[in-house]
Amino acid sequence: MSNVESVHTGRKPNVVFIIADDHREESLGASGNAIVRTPVLDGLAAEGTAFSNTHIFGGLTGAVCAPSRACVNSGKSIFNAMIGKDVMSWEHAITIRSDVKLMPQAMREAGYRTHAVGKWHNDKPSFARSFDGGDKLFFHGMSDHTEVPVQDFDPTGQYPPEREYMEHTFSTELFTNAAVDFIAQYEEKEPFYLYVAYTAPHDPRTAPEAYRSMYKEEDIPLPANFMEQHPFDTGDMTVRDEGLAGLPREAGEIRRHIADYYAMITHLDAEIGRVVEALKVKGIYDDTIIVYTADHGLSVGQHGLMGKQNVYEHSVRIPFILRGPSVPAGGRQAAPVSNIDIFPTLASLCQIPLPNEVEGVSMLPVLKGETDRVRHVVCSAYRDVQRMATDGRWKLIRTYYSPATKTGVDRIQLFDLQNDSWETADLFDDPQHHEVLLQLAGELKKWMHEYSDILIETPVLPTSEG
Questions:
Q1: Rounded to a whole number, what is the distance in angstroms from the first to the last CA of the chain?
Q2: What is the pLDDT of residues 279-308, one digit of tens each?
């Protein structure tokens, strides 16, 4: 493990922070997936540390992307970082409170030159107070990958819609080009913080043919938790994402979707390789911390679902890879991590002041080998219909009925992730696991109080023990 200062310059390390859209942790070669091809990300994981048990905090609308990105950039819960707490409120999903200091803002105040490329799915004032510069800025949730409405950096911070122009270079390549150009042209004495936010592998999953042809649908195995239809109402069974495939789910169609998904990921991986190469050509690769993560995962046929509007592992567990100065090589950590912990971890590595209001915790003690975990459990929320808690082995999912939308059901599930990583065997009714159930229910209730959950007065267990 090297010193926090760059090995060549003696200054704080540069940071390249990469965040993907819809990339679940399981869909990485480094995570044991033998089908998807991700040699660049696998290499970063081998040269650094991968936190394999990282979960999103969640969201209160179907657009989980925006609040999840707010959690990453604020280190705070969705209940305390966003404007309002109304379920299904677009303002709550998008708008970060003006008094919340964000990760790039803190880096900027600590002397970093902050530069953004790609997607910013939160409010424009939060972007403006965070970045010194930017290029190919995308202030939307999604678009066709060859019709991308972008803006140039606006020093006024206004970013009115009329400034947008259309780019037809494939989004992943478009954003990579901008990132590579920034690295190549950077000559300032201050270290830089480069935020690269891709829209891949989000649909429409239309990877270039050279990558799509790598995956033959007939060679794609169905996941062990494939179902033709989810057995109960999770609260959002008719959201847009769930209409991307027919019902009941058909094996051939799901294989095609998985092939499309993997092709997008492999293309993304190759483009990240160009960013890595640009750092090497510039001679600053060893002076730069690279972070790779995603806003959330995706079902793509698992549990009979297609989207991310649930709290199964495929939707709430994300990659979190660190590589660079002060990061041990070859580490794979199973410590429970929340995405609100990414900001404090990076702040620790760069030795910059952390805002007092940050609710996440640094994983630096785990990186240093001082402990095997700093959290006992992590939890996630989805709307007013789902909550989950996991200690890494055991996982409780609580589904509620929503009077507001008349969706969901009153149900609890318990899974042994160590022996059932696909979450196929519900152990809720097994008496021998009753104590584990009560323990996790207690942890979830504590979490709901700690972070001011909107369901704070709602029992976790539908019994006197809840």
A1: 45
A2: 999 999 999 999 999 999 999 999 999 999
